[in-house]
Amino acid sequence: MKALAYFLIIPAAMILDFILATNFGFYQRYPVLPFLLILTGLFFLIRLLFKKFTILRLFLALAGLTLSGFYGWWVVSYSTYPGIENTVAIGTQADVMSIELNDSAGETRTLSEIQGDSAAIMLTFYRGYWCPYCISELAHIQTNKALFDEANVALAAVTIDEGEALKLAKTKASAEFPILSDNEGKLIDAFGLRHKGGNAIDGSDISRPAIIVLNREGKLIYSEYTDNYRVRPSPKKLAAKITELLKQ
Q1: Are residues 137 and 66 in the same domain?
Q2: Distance of alpha carbon 42 from its chain centroid, rounded?
Q3: 206 and 115 Cβ atoms separated by less than 8 Å
Q4: Residue 239: partners with Cβ closer than 8 Å, 6 or more residues away
Q5: pTM exceeds 0.85, yes or no
Q6: For every one of its 248 residues, what pLDDT tens digit does the chain have, with 9 covering 90 and above?
Q7: How far is 76 from 69, CA to CA, in rounded Å?
Q8: Are the beta carbons of 180 and 188 closer than 8 angstroms?
Q9: Is the domain of 73 the same as that of 128?
Q10: Is the same domain home to 109 and 54?
Q11: Residue 76 DSSP one-character state
C-alpha cells in the first residue's frame, strides 16, 4: 500500500536522524537529510489523498503531519538551551578536586584520586542514563580512550544519577572510566550546568551536557558547553585540542 509506505518514510527519517546525530558532525545541528525525507513522505501522502480520498489515507496524512510537527518542535525548540553561557572563565582555579562522589561501584572517589599522575582530567557531564545522545557520547569517548591515554588525560563522567542508573550507563557505554554521581549537584553547580526540571522522566534537575578539562593544579584549561543536547563534541577533536593545550 503506497500510503503506508509513504507514511513509514517519516519515522524512518527520524531513526536516520538519531543515527546521524550520534555519530557527530554536521547532522547533529542541521538534520537536512531527515527533514528532506520527511517532507518527501508528506508530499506523497497528501498527493495520494487529493487523488483519491479514503479514511485510511486521511488518517495516515494526519498522523504524518502530527509526527512531523512533533519532530520539528523537538529538533528546533525542545532540544535547545537558549542563553547558556560559559560561566567559569578559562584559567579559573576550580575548588572541586577534593569533592567526594560515589562511582558506579558505590566507592567514594575524588577528582584528585582519579586524575592521579595524569596531566589533566576531562569531565564529561551528561543528562542521564535515559538519554541516548549521552550514552552514545560516552561510548565514543571510550572508543577513543587510547587518544586520551596518549595525551596523559584521565577521564571521568559526571551525572546527577545514582545507584543502578550509574551501572546501567556504564554498561550501555562499555565505559572503562569512572562514572560519578553528583546527586547533590556540587560539581554541576560549580560549573553552572544545572538544568532545572530537565529530567524527561520525573521532572527533576539534571546536568546540561558539557566538557570540562582541569589541569594538575585544578585550573580550568578547556570547556565546551552546548546549546543543544543533540550536539556533542567529537572525542577525536577533543583529544587533539587538549593535547595541544597541554603542550603550551
Answers
A1: no
A2: 29
A3: no
A4: 144, 147, 148, 150, 151, 153
A5: yes
A6: 889 999 999 999 999 988 888 876 777 778 889 999 999 999 999 999 999 999 999 999 999 999 999 999 988 888 887 666 657 878 888 889 989 999 998 899 999 999 999 999 999 999 999 999 999 999 999 999 999 999 999 999 999 998 899 999 999 999 999 999 999 999 999 998 988 888 877 888 999 999 999 998 889 999 988 888 888 999 999 999 999 998 87
A7: 10
A8: no
A9: no
A10: no
A11: I
Residues 62, 22 share a domain: yes
Q: What is the CATH classification number for the domain harbouring 211?
A: 3.40.30.10
DSSP state of 25: S
| Domain annotation covers residue 73 | yes
* Residue 90 within any structural domain of the chain: no
Q: Which three cell numbers stand for residue 75?
A: 529538533
C-beta atoms surrounding 96 within 10 Å: 20
Closest-CA residue to 63 (of 6, 1, 2): 6
Whether 114 maps to a domain, the answer reads yes
Domain of residue 58, residue span: 2-78
Residue 93: inside a domain: no
Residue 109 and residue 178 in contact, taking contact as beta carbons nearer than 8 Å: yes
| 9 and 59 both lie in a single domain | yes
